[in-house]
Amino acid sequence: MKFTTRDQLKAWLDGLAAEMDLVAPRGVDGHVFYRPVASGDEVLFDYERPELSAKAFVFPDTEVFLRVEQRGKDVTVEEVRTERKQVIFGVRPCDAHGLAVIDALFLNQEPADAQYQHHRERTVLVGLACPRMWEGCFCTSMGGAPDDATHLDVLLREVEGGYAVEAVSEKGKALVKGLKTKQKAGDPPAPQTNADAVPVVDTATWRTLFNDKLWQRHGERCLSCRICTYVCPTCRCFDVVDRVVDTQPGLTRIERIRVWDACTSTNYRRAAGGHNSRPTKPGRIRNRFYCKFCYYPEDFGPLGCVGCGRCVVSCPVDIDITEIMRDVAAKGGQE
Amino acid sequence: MSDYEALTQQIREQARQLLSEGRVDCVIGYEVGPRGVTRPAFIYDAADVDRLVWNASCVHNLVTYLHDKKKPQRRGEEPPRVAVVVKPCDSRTINVLLAERQIARERIFAIGMACEGTVGADGEPLARCTRCGDRVPVVYDVLLGEPPNVSPPQDDYPDLARIEAMPPAERLAFWLGEFDRCIRCYACRQVCPGCYCTTCMFERDDGLWVDIGIEVSGKHIFHLGRALHLAGRCVECDECERVCPMGLPLSLLNRRLVREVDATFHYHAGREETLAPILFEFGGSK
Ligand code: SF4
Ligand code: SF4
Ligand code: SF4
């Protein structure tokens, strides 16, 4: 295996930070998030699962993508776009898997989502394998693993005294050229995995349970907040609005922004005129899970969940996707 | 120490009676899910009452769910009658909602719990509980448990004092740092029994006051605005702070105004059933 030390990694990250946007796990007021960092020293190497996924760096929670300026009769429209390269360091494999899920819609359907595509192309994912699965994690049930390299450009695994380096893609190979490594004998240790598998049932079975009591039972305690969708590495709904940022006589400046949206919020389905076609909590919760396990796979291929466990641990009223998957399997006779 | 097992049985018995005698359509209480987490439960059938529990992790303020029960379930019917398990802090929100004409007293059956305080996921008492002097709900139809004999602590707002001692620039920086972490998930608003506007002014489609961007400027307005909208209405159940996934100290904002309303009007939201909303009274005699 190719081996490197933490100090060598830090020196490499210092060099990357000087040339491009560097994002990495960082401690913020007692929380751990992927955040922009200016040097290797700011990077957290020992962490569990950042509380928010990495999606915000290719699909920002709020992004200005057009600037419109009107001066008298002249109107100019400018696309807002950064040309800088970006490295996300320390990505957990489930987060990279989550981006692959979003790719199925934003990249692989015509037309591709231009903003997303641009961010994806300018970004290299350097993963750090989880030594074990954390509270709520079930990636192994969703086709992933704590050390899954599939959706990453580079995968690092912690070994005695440092890290094993595996360049997965061409982008990854190019990026690690600047990293000092040496050959070492041996293999990285396998991560610890939880024994309990969560059953994933086919979409046809899901379709038989649309009117089941289960949705009432689980949905009624939902708060209609947006936590589960905002922490999720695959949830990708958004809203677009124009906002006036400046008005003077003869001059108006407008920004078009795209902002995350959430199917769990009460007004998600409200239409012009005020009608809301999904007015109840059970209906909205049902949609969230049908999106993940029925509609998205039928329409775009992959399942809409990678088993990161974030929504499981962060829902204030314990709406637990794994419990729902088990209930669906039991009711659908597939357990 | 509370005998949680005995109280669990009493809640179940109460719920069984209410449902089988047809006195209520639904009992809102607590259950423990498969992960061992205590959470809200809605029971419609006497056969299901054994799901109900009482333990030190019954932290949620279930009164917030009464907003979902204000309308008839089916057209032409009366709205449902609902029993709800309440701690002293939760019970104050019943009074707030009564005073604001949100719920009808005769449709609510309050199962009041004598309370020794609740604990968070870390097993430590919640901050709200260490400050709370109430051991018995202010409104109930039945009281379960023996009120423990503990002397009420005095909340002299030591945490607020720390913030207020900061020079203005530092205080602003503190709050902007907190708001920066906020993800605008609205859990704080959604869980709040006092936040029941059908269209929140901070989430209007036309962005009249603040647009939808998840940015510090909008979050700043949202949090200060929300706190002001709860002045004289917040009962300090601290649910907003408890559910915040980003750990914002929202209670500091709300309690700053609780203290203000107390000092100026000698008014405590929800203390009594008859209290009119402070904004109707403006300096009433209490
Ligand atoms: S649905 Fe929940 S467990 Fe699945 S990927 Fe999203 S946040 Fe993670
Ligand atoms: S399921 Fe939980 S996290 Fe998601 S909207 Fe409902 S209360 Fe919020
Ligand atoms: S619950 Fe916390 S993160 Fe969510 S909107 Fe409120 S303050 Fe922000």
Written overview of the protein:
The complex is a heterodimer of chains A (335) and B (286). Chain A has helices spanning 6-19, 93-106, 114-122, 170-176, 203-208, 214-219, 227-231, 281-300, 310-314, 321-331, and strands at 2-4, 21-28, 31-36, 62-71, 74-79, 86-91, 123-128, 154-159, 162-167, 182-183, 238-248, 251-260. Chain A has one domain (2-331). Chain A has 335 residues and is α+β, with helices and mostly antiparallel strands. In chain A, a hairpin with a 2-residue loop joins β2 (21-28) and β3 (31-36). Chain B folds into 2 domains: 4-144, no CATH class; 158-279, no CATH class. Chain B has 10 helices and 5 strands, in the order αβββαβαβααααααα. Chain B has a 5-stranded mixed sheet with strand order 2-1-3-4-5. Chain A binds chain B through residues 28-31, 51-52, 61-62, 217, 220-221, 223-227, 230-231, 239, 241, 243, 257, 259-260, 262, 265, 267, 270, 281, 312, 314, 316-318, 320, 323, 326, and chain B through 33-35, 37-42, 60, 64-65, 68, 177-178, 181, 183-187, 190-191, 199, 203, 205, 207, 211-215, 242-243, 245-247. Residues 222-225, 227-228, 264, 315-317, 319 of chain A line the site of one iron/sulfur cluster.
